[in-house]
Amino acid sequence: MILPKKDTPENPVLRGALSRLFELAVHVLWPVSCPVCGMTASPACPGCLAGLAEKSRRMLCAECMRPFPCPSHPGSVPLRYLTSFGGVSRDLVHLLKYGSRRELGRLMGRTMGEAFPRMRAALLVPVPLHAGSERAFNQSLELARGMADVWKAGFEDSLEWKISRPSQVGLPSSERKNIPKNAMQWKGQPPSGRTIWIVDDVCTTGATLRSAIQAVTASGSRVAGAFTWAMTPGV
Ligand SMILES: [Zn+2]
Ligand SMILES: [Zn+2]
Questions:
Q1: Average of pLDDT values for 126-150?
Q2: Ligand having the closest approach to the CA of 52
Q3: In this model, does residue 177 exceed pLDDT 70?
Q4: 74 Cα: distance to centroid of ligand 2 (angstroms)
Q5: Which domain holds residue 105?
Q6: Total number of domains in the chain
Q7: What is the per-residue pLDDT across 179-231, written as a single tens digit (0 to 9) for each?
Q8: Does residue 121 lie within any of the structural domains?
Q9: How far apart (Å, rounded) are the C-alpha atoms in residues 100 and 32?
Q10: Which ligand is nearest to the CA of 88?
């Protein structure tokens, strides 16, 4: 069978100019572009985000960040992460957190939901913003929202910090391990009988995740594991 030739403008210069004009018009109407490939009119392409997922599906022990299952912590839960923190994966987190690109969070969360094995009857609970934070939104809640889209799961922003803590940016990782016990708590009705998965954007030492796990356990429920967008390498 002979397929008809596709219609294309004869003049490649004209074709290029028209296409650029179209892109510009779209960009003016919807001034966003994919932070990975630069495509206009898209906050981030699903394919570009999925391309960041590391092939190896390593799980880490939430207690010590060594491979899971961990002989030193038989009662620990697994932490899964999508990618290492650096380059584009770091740029995305910075755009989300400091560039107020809220819409990126849900898209990044959907990528996590697609990449990780789907957990049945999961309740996704994000790590909360610090008390007194001036951020307009909790980026980890947006990630949980995106994962919940894919898994058809529930999500609840039900944890809160009991302590105020200065920003840890710039502190060496050894200092970031020191979060006092019971620094976080469950607010509202305890999540009876639900299996909870903690969601965070970046994991460094795991101290924040452990505070979240402790708070859920203190409320009488069980954490089955944690998911983060990225893991800081070499800690
Ligand atoms: Zn893209
Ligand atoms: Zn361990």
A1: 94
A2: 1
A3: no
A4: 8
A5: 40-165+179-231
A6: 1
A7: 888 889 999 888 777 889 999 999 989 999 999 999 999 999 999 999 999 99
A8: yes
A9: 12
A10: 1
